[in-house]
């Protein structure tokens, strides 16, 4: 497997760190070198959060520059727009269609951009638009949006499903395991447009 550069983008409280831990475990279980780096602003207050996960035979730096991401996992659609310039032209971009207004929009200093997902689809061919919040609600916990998104990404990966499931079992606290396994299945079985 050649190196794989994955960015996880969202806002504080959406579980990007847990998602990156699951990805890290998947990489290690697959015998790959992995580097994880988290960059964020006011994560606890809904600020922008970005996590870089690089895996492959040998990884030297955790940072992903512009036009280097093979996959961008977007937990919120404005964050997808904010970080899209990091995607390669043929990148897989998985976008939760959830809207979470940032502080400038909440206080009336800025407008939330219109039609974000279609703007991204106009420039990139491999965009998966996911109603992750709705899927997480059906699984019993809105906080499992991150694992729904991991499930969608896993469906588009070359790594076997059981490796993903074992990583979730190792990473998620026991009291939240059942709902997160359901969330992973919901994401893994999600078919866009159906």
Task: Walk me through the structure.
The chain is of the alpha/beta class. It has one domain (4-101, 114-188): Pyruvate-ferredoxin Oxidoreductase, domain 3. 40% of the residues lie in helices and 24% in strands. It contains 8 helices and 6 strands; from the N terminus they run βαβββαβααβαααα. It has helices at residues 16-29, 77-83, 103-106, 116-123, 132-139, 145-155, 161-171, 174-188; strands at residues 4-11, 33-40, 48-56, 69-74, 87-96, 126-130. It has a 6-stranded mixed sheet, sandwiched between helices. Helix 6 (145-155) crosses helix 8. It is globular. The termini are far apart.
List the helices and strands and how they pair.
Layout: E1 4-11, H1 16-29, E2 33-40, E3 48-56, E4 69-74, H2 77-83, E5 87-96, H3 103-106, H4 116-123, E6 126-130, H5 132-139, H6 145-155, H7 161-171, H8 174-188
Parallel strand pairs: 1-4, 4-5, 5-6
Antiparallel strand pairs: 1-3, 2-3
Helix pairs in contact: 1-7, 5-6, 5-8, 6-8
């Amino acid at each position: 497997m050649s190196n794989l550069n994955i960015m996880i983008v969202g806002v504080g409280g959406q579980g990007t760190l847990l998602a990156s831990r699951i990805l890290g475990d998947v990489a290690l279980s697959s015998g790959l070198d992995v580097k994880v780096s988290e960059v964020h602003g006011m994560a606890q207050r809904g600020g922008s959060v970005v996590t870089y996960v690089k895996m492959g035979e040998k990884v030297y730096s955790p940072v992903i520059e512009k036009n280097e991401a093979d996959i961008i996992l977007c937990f919120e659609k404005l964050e997808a727009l904010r970080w899209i310039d990091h995607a390669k032209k043929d990148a897989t971009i998985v976008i939760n269609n959830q809207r979470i207004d940032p502080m400038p929009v909440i206080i009336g200093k800025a407008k939330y951009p219109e039609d974000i997902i279609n703007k991204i689809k106009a420039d990139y061919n491999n965009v998966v638009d996911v109603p992750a919040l709705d899927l997480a609600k059906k699984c019993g916990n809105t906080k499992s949006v991150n694992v729904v998104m991991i499930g969608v990404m896993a469906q588009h990966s070359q790594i076997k499903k059981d490796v993903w499931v074992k990583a979730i079992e190792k990473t998620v606290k026991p009291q939240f395991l059942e709902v997160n396994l359901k969330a992973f299945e919901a994401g893994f079985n999600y078919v866009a447009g159906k």
